[in-house]
Write a structure and sequence with these properties.
Helix content: under 10%
Number of helices: 1
Number of strands: 7
Strand order of the largest sheet: 1-2-3-6-5
Order of helices and strands: EEEHEEEE
Structural class: mainly beta
Radius of gyration: 14 Å
Amino acid sequence: MSYPQVDRSDLVPNFDGRAGDDVVDVGWAEGQLTEGRPYRLECWSLAGTTGVTVLMADEGLEASGLLEVNALLEASGVITNLAPQELTLHRFVDPSGTSCLSVSYVTANEDDEFFAEAHPPLKPYNRAS
């Protein structure tokens, strides 16, 4: 089965935290889950906390909850959960009209406590965009 890629054409990276909020965009990665679904991982920083958000089309996952999606991401080697944390699952429609979902993880906080590890190597955002 072929799944659509999440369209992030509307993303304007924030490099300094002063573009209306305090989130700083760090980098991104793309890949495929074990079942062939493309994903996009975006790394961000906010007030001493670093996190990642994993985005993907929700085709075939419409009835899946946070536990199932998290298990898929772990089984695919995208995320390793190191400590309990409150995760968030958000459903949205991307600019191309694809129904998508995202899961956000805190990877580390300002006290150097580690909660999750993201495995794909990050690419920097293009500052010229």
